[in-house]
Automatic annotation (TrEMBL):
Residues 106-195 form the Lipase-like C-terminal domain. Pfam families: Lip_C (PF24708). This is 10406_t:CDS:1. It is found in: Secreted. Its main location: secreted. Gene3D superfamilies: alpha/beta hydrolase. The lineage of its organism: Eukaryota, Fungi, Fungi incertae sedis, Mucoromycota, Glomeromycotina.
Length: 606
């Protein structure tokens, strides 16, 4: 029987439908917007397959590489360090009814990892400053931002002193960094500083066993430009903008020491943002107008958060680029499917979900914000529509790793079984995991905000609320269908009336610019994806006797009836008996299952 099952597994895996995969050349002058439309929404980018990078490095599966698996429990459990992004918090608790927890930033991760180390670098600093603080918070010692860096940006060289979360941190005792958003890019920059021995303590990149990113702005975000950052300036902010208001608020909080202790921005020791009476350099007027070295010199979050700042991290000299360490595991979770694309204007609209209400406005802005042709040419180096698909706070395109770093597989995760974090993975290359439903992930399976509140969970159990919720769940497709059709109907009327003709999707039009690189498609082998999926399915079945006998029994029954198992049809088996459908229907060679996209309504919209 074991031989029969082995043949069945081998044959069923080889029978998977595999579509041609495409990876696009992407260097400092990246191609225009058709790249994102073709590679994410319309092709098999969601399949598990190896992708060639722009540096043409060969990472074929025949190369002998020792796979690594992260250990989450037991005596040999890895050391996990959590790195927060912008505006981090631990827990937000309301002083009512004995304390109601509104949000817990790391609740999803702490449910899977016992007692992880939580760091707290300054909220609005540059990647360099945050990575340096992160190092000393983990290792211990007084923060040293570097003499040349401090002189260049005119801030103090030395900062706070920390005891160290992991004092014995070394290449023999590596850690695993888990970062969300801006914290993920901070973790990667820390590894870059370690690999270049910035700290002068014989550090190396293999002091980090793994880097796990969730919704990381690898290629920057367009949101700062909407909030008031002047394109092309890197650090100049429009004086009448939301970003200017935010900077003024930051300076006022740092000016008043009691507020700074409450919000804990950790900027005073470095930038002298306290009042003059407390040893700083700020006057009340300069605090109100956000005039300081922190704002003017560009050593802050605005630069590294923007598209231009992100590009400088991978388009400069080779010595400044972060090269992936061959002994480190890299898993990049890309949050998707929070928007749908209108086929009338090409804009991306937020989906109907109460879980996304707090990011609906940002999603609406990101899904339609359009730059001038000059900004697209000189700043974005791509069309504005490239950045329209988003997860509510960050564009899907922004979450893709830098073009000079190797991607081994792109995986559409609609079953938790295929989450690479629970399996042995090849170090030194990226695993891109496109996540439609975060409950299918191992680490990020719950919402940190509102959705996991005990109070809300209790309310949802009330009889009337439960029935109403069940009614919404049964009709959610109909509601969203009506929503999509209504929006596209309004857009069609506006376009036909001539009021918004300039809003018609232009992603398919040719741009008359001088710096567009030739659009090169590289077709790659899917051998690595086949081998990886086959290994997971084989281990899963062989380690579970109940599943093994279930599939064997079902297969034998199908042979007796002459019907393909799980085919859902009455087609008879002909020829080779091993033409049945796969034992386990893996999602990794199939386009991601989006709910109610514009394409789903193509037949219903005239």
């Amino acid at each position: 029987m074991s031989k029969f099952l082995k043949n069945l597994i081998n044959k069923s895996t080889s029978q998977k439908t595999i579509t041609s995969s495409t990876a696009y050349q992407d260097d400092d002058e990246i191609n225009y917007a058709t790249e994102i439309e073709g590679s994410i929404e319309g092709s098999s980018v969601y399949g598990a397959f190896p992708v060639e990078s722009s540096d043409s490095t060969d990472y074929s599966c025949t190369e002998t590489v020792k796979d690594i698996q992260l250990i989450f429990e037991g005596e040999n459990k890895d050391t996990f360090v959590l790195v927060p992004g912008l505006l981090p918090y631990d827990t937000i608790e309301l002083p009512f009814f004995g304390g109601i927890i509104v949000a817990d930033y790391w609740r999803d991760v702490k449910e899977q990892i016992d007692d992880p180390y939580i760091t707290n670098p300054n909220s609005f600093g540059s990647l360099h400053d945050r990575a340096v603080e992160l190092y000393y918070q983990i290792k211990g010692g007084q923060v040293d931002y570097g003499r040349s860096h401090s002189r260049r940006f005119c801030h103090r060289q030395l900062g706070q002193t920390y005891e160290g979360l992991v004092p014995d941190w070394s290449p023999e005792n590596p850690i695993v960094l888990i970062g969300k958003g801006y914290g993920a890019t901070t973790a990667l920059h820390l590894q870059h500083l370690l690999s270049t021995n910035f700290f002068g303590q014989h550090t190396s990149g293999n002091m980090v066993k793994g880097v796990i990113c969730w919704s990381a702005p690898h290629r920057g975000s367009t949101l700062p430009y909407y909030l008031g950052l002047e394109p092309g300036s890197k650090c100049i902010v429009n004086p009448i903008s939301i970003l200017q208001l935010l900077l003024s608020l930051i300076h006022l909080i740092c000016y008043f020491s009691f507020l700074e202790r409450f919000f804990n921005f950790n900027l005073n020791d470095q930038w002298y943002l306290a009042s003059k009476s407390e040893g700083g350099e700020q006057s009340l007027c300069s605090a109100l107008t956000a005039r300081s070295r922190f704002t003017y010199f560009g050593d802050n979050f605005l630069v590294d958060w923007s598209v231009e700042g992100a590009r400088t991290r991978y388009s400069g000299d080779e010595k400044d680029k972060h090269i992936l360490d061959p002994n480190c595991v890299y898993i990049n979770y890309i949050s998707t499917c929070q928007t749908w694309k209108s086929k009338i204007t090409g804009y991306h609209w937020p989906r109907l979900s109460w879980r996304n209400l707090h990011t609906t406005f940002i999603s609406f802005i990101l899904g339609r914000y359009k730059f001038s042709p000059d900004v697209e040419q000189k700043v974005l180096r791509t069309a504005s529509s490239t950045f329209w698909p988003n997860d509510g706070s960050l564009s899907v395109y922004s979450q893709q790793p830098p073009p000079h770093q190797q991607i081994l597989m792109n995986i559409a995760l609609d079953q938790r079984l295929y989450d690479p974090i629970e399996h042995e993975t090849t170090p030194g290359v990226w695993y891109n995991v496109y996540v439609d439903d975060r409950t299918q992930t191992f680490l990020f399976d719950s919402e940190p905000f509102l959705a996991t509140l005990p109070l809300i969970e209790h309310i949802l159990k009330w009889s009337l609320i439960k029935k109403f919720n069940e009614f919404l769940m049964r009709n959610v497709d109909d509601f969203e269908s009506f929503y999509v059709n209504f929006v596209e109907y309004c857009e069609r009327k506006l376009v036909l009336s001539g009021q918004h003709e300039d809003n018609i999707d232009t992603s398919s039009k040719s741009y008359n610019t001088t710096i567009i690189a030739e659009h090169v498609e590289k077709y790659t082998s899917d051998k690595a994806g086949l081998e990886w999926i086959h290994k997971i399915e084989t281990i899963e079945i062989l380690n579970s006797p109940s599943k093994m006998f279930y599939w064997v029994k079902k297969y034998q029954a199908s042979l007796e009836n002459g019907i393909l198992p799980e085919s859902g049809s009455n087609d008879k088996i002909s020829g080779n008996p091993f033409t049945a459908t796969p034992c386990m229907q893996g999602p990794t060679f199939v386009k991601a299952k989006h709910k109610l996209t514009a394409e789903d309504y193509k037949a219903s919209v005239i």
